[in-house]
Amino acid sequence: MAAVVTGGGTGIGRAIAEALARLGHPVAVVYSRSADEAAATVEAIRAAGGTAAAFPTDVTDDDAVRALMTDVREALGPVSVLVNNAGGTEHIALDDLEAADDEVFERLFRLNTLSAWHCARAAAEDLRAADDGCVINVGSASVSSGRGSSVPYVVSKAALSGLTRALANALAPARVNEVWPGLVLTRWWAGKEEQGRALAANAIVGRETTVDDIAAAVVGLVTSRAITGQTITIDGGQTL
């Protein structure tokens, strides 16, 4: 049965898409603006012997998401795994309270929280009917520290954690879990790689956390049939 990965063309999403394809899932690589990257992800999966297709979708639009799930079912089969990885941020200093206006809160809430709700609701019938339907939400370790790229970002990801636990009850017997990546050097750090590496050096395991580390945790949650309503932090101990 199919796996849907939103934001699946780049960074963490691409690593997750490729990992799920190796498990044998046909993968729907969902993207908004990264058409070339999504096509490259699909090509890589197919070159490795897997099945994948790319689907352009605005996941903040409920109607678009419902249409997406219909298209995925027709192209790849019923959805048994959903990874809500799409998200974004706006870099605003935490003490700049006036810059974090209502529009920023609303924009990031739609992108980081409501998008996951849209996708889970649109796939609910398939997920409940699957032998082991599974949703993984990609949150952020900034929720535990309260420090992140902006206050609205931290709050929107905290809301995603609440949604994870509510959906674990609402979608049962499908399972719903969450991963909290720490600092991972994705394209968000373009131009600031040295700063990112300096921060990542604080990990007590002595190395950076990579996109493949996040993908491995997602695979573990997908294949561990007794885990639901849980959050796994993947940051090499950065937040300890």
From TrEMBL:
Biological source species:
Actinomycetospora endophytica
User: From what superkingdom does this record's organism come?
Assistant: Bacteria
User: Which parts of the sequence belong to the Ketoreductase domain?
Assistant: 3-192
The UniProt similarity line reads: Belongs to the short-chain dehydrogenases/reductases (SDR) family.
Gene3D superfamilies with a match to the protein in the record: NAD(P)-binding Rossmann-like Domain (3.40.50.720)
Q: Which CDD domains does the UniProt entry name for this protein?
A: SDR_c
| Keyword field | Oxidoreductase
What name does this protein carry? SDR family oxidoreductase
